[in-house]
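task queued by scheduler; priority normal; single chain, no ligands, no partner chains; default sampling; output format set to structure tokens
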Amino acid sequence: MSWWWLFGEVLRNGCLVGRSTMQKVIMDKNTLEFFKKLLLEKRAYLFKGIRNVEQDLQGIIEDRPTESIEKASGESDLRILSKLDDLGIRELREIDVALAKIDAGTYGVCEGCGKPIPEARLRALPSTSLCSPCKHEEEEGGP
């Protein structure tokens, strides 16, 4: 499933298609503003980090050493930086979806069971889309 599709569904419907148990969670305005600010700060931090990783990747590509040992080390560095870049981009997508849910009024609703995600979990993982039981079930390979 494309994150753009998910993002569009949240904006259009306030929930995901096929999640009939999804409900709107009533959070007070101050709590929503807190999470929105937290997500925007994290987003800005990730953008800066991704930009730095991409600059480092470009530097490694441009300065490829010719020695075989140095070349192997450079390629290893390149793979590590590329993986960090991919993780950062994925996390940015999750943040964008969470921000869209705030606007749609569905932030804090578990995509697995449709129940409210506890605020303590949201404070620890503000872009999470699953409550702890559903995340555990997902990791265990459940339905």
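post-processing summary
- Helices lie at 3-13, 29-62, 68-104, 119-124, 132-139.
- The domain at 21-139 is CATH 1.20.120.910 (Four Helix Bundle (Hemerythrin (Met), subunit A)).
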